[in-house]
Amino acid sequence: MILFATCMLLMFIGRVPMKYLMMLILAGALFGAVALIVGQRWKTAISRIEKFQATLFDDNAPIPDQAEQAYIAIWNGGLIGKGPGNSDLKYFLPQSSSDFIYAIIIEEYGFIGGIFVVFLYLALLYRGMKTVVKSDRAYGGLLSAGLAFSLVGQAMINMGVAVGLGPITGQPLPLLSMGGTSLLFTGLSLGIILSVSRGDLTESNSTEPKYATA
């Protein structure tokens, strides 16, 4: 879904007509549903969505263990947190160093630290989108915007799950979650964004000598 949303955003920035975008959305929703049903994760996805809906509309519905431990960690954090390394729930919360690391961040650094992390990701998205405006080459600008949106989209989903705004997905938090593959591709994405930005900056600062012609 993140990849599909990123593609749609790039086509929207690239001024693809809206009627074609709507056709792609319908086709993507249809083929995505078929692929999910045929695949092996259909029951898992439905189960997570049903549990999330139950917690929203039924006060007596049981809360998944991961989500419950994350809520307790966020509650313990308060406004300023318990201090770096002083989290108690990191020993009980499953996947506390990857999928639910944002809850541990809030427990240690508080509401203020959680808001600051959100601000950093939004700043990354702003810088990635700004490259589109400054880039003289469409490919470089769209590439930078797509990678930035993909990284920030993953971050927003991860943080939304931790605070109870979405079903559990297992999406890592870029640059903060422990992991090998995620960290590798996050580093590659940031390197590409910096490369595009550096290339545009070099071209804008370069001065070519002008010669008078007879």
Describe the structure.
The protein has about 210 residues and is an all-alpha fold. It has one domain (about 40-200). Helix content is about 70%, strand content about 0%. It has helices at about 1-15, 20-40, 40-55, 65-75, 100-135, 140-160, 180-205. The protein is globular, with a radius of gyration of 21 Å. Residues about 210-214 have low confidence and may be disordered.
Query: What is the CA–CA distance across the termini?
Result: 60 Å
Shape: globular
**Amount of helix:** 55-70%
Encode the helix/strand succession as letters: HHHHHHH
Q: Specify Rg, calculated over alpha carbons.
A: 21 Å
Overall SS class = mainly alpha
Provide key terms for this protein:
disordered C terminus, mainly alpha, 214 residues
Short synopsis of the structure:
By secondary structure, the protein is mainly alpha-helical. It contains 7 helices and no strands. Helix 1 runs antiparallel to helix 6, helix 5 runs antiparallel to helix 6 and helix 6 runs antiparallel to helix 7.
